[in-house]
């Protein structure tokens, strides 16, 4: 769960702005999956559209104009970048989000301002030269110290929620809610409460998100593999069900996505479109 080269979540990797992921140190790994830092500098009048299918999780993001807490999402989304800027974000584990917001389902498909003035001031001071790796390292260290000072140690139930996430992310054979409940040695009802409390999504939505992320990565990396074979490998009964889920979530068919995954596309603004890196 800490592999910063994990391709899932990024729909068009070839279009990324300058971007870096930093793994969480061991003492924060139960709270944070990784730190992520995009930096962009665009010509006047150009727009970079970040298309993404986010991980089923929340992010806390420090940017030049404030801090936002982004909740779990139920579909693909995008963010348009203009001018120049940066962000320093963290992808939160289930144990991490509840330490920051007690009900992640209440911020589903939205983002809210987050008040942490000291964290904001210190990271802005560190990121005066955002393209410098040393500045980014200092920002990550500051973020880590804030997390250690602010967030409590996760309890046993929160760690069980982390295990739920690890199993779904790491084992493609987990396809159904009862599969996951069995692996965790809990009832389906307990699993549903765990997912609702610590992620803000239903267990089946979490499973499908990881499988669709994997499907998108396979469609990009294996242009010669038939869509039906990808669907079968992900546990779908047939190609039609995979196509239906994929289209409903991403807003395009697997075939259309595969056609567009190779390089930049030009939007109405004339700008390169690129995905969110979290």
TrEMBL record:
Q: Organism source for this protein?
A: Gordonia amarae NBRC 15530
Tagged with keyword Transcription = yes
- Name it: Putative AraC family transcriptional regulator
Alphabetical list of InterPro entries matching this protein: AraC_XylS_family_regulators, DUF6597, Homeodomain-like_sf, HTH_AraC, HTH_AraC-typ_CS, Tscrpt_reg_AraC-type_HTH
Annotated GO MF terms: DNA-binding transcription factor activity; sequence-specific DNA binding
Q: Residue spans with biased composition (Gly residues)?
A: 260-270
Q: Where is this region: Disordered?
A: 253-278
| PROSITE patterns xref list | HTH_ARAC_FAMILY_1, HTH_ARAC_FAMILY_2
| UniProt entry keywords in alphabetical sequence | DNA-binding, Transcription, Transcription regulation
Q: Residue limits of the HTH araC/xylS-type domain? A: 158-260
Q: Return the PANTHER family for the record.
A: HTH-TYPE DNA-BINDING TRANSCRIPTIONAL ACTIVATOR EUTR (PTHR46796:SF12), HTH-TYPE TRANSCRIPTIONAL ACTIVATOR RHAS-RELATED (PTHR46796)
